[in-house]
Write a structure and sequence with these properties.
Helices cover 57% and strands 0% of the residues. The chain has four helices and no strands. It is mainly alpha-helical. The radius of gyration is 15 Å and the shape is elongated.
Amino acid sequence: MPYLLLALTLPVAAGSPQPLPEDLAAFIQDYENCEHFSGEEPYDEERRAFLNEQIEQSCTDLETQRRALSQRYAGQAELLQHLHDHPPL
């Protein structure tokens, strides 16, 4: 059964022509994947295994990443806003 894989895109900061730093873009992608897969229905064992794998890959250490990014980009309000736009799950 084919699964839809979410494409990794580099979000662009509002008002900025530059893509977000790679680590911040990866955090946002993991966050969005975690949120998405956590809300999916495990309608059979194959799907349950797939969802568990995706959740483990995307949800693990999100808050540790958030703290590190908050420290790394302290004083850069435009970048920190992206963390605030993705509150703890």
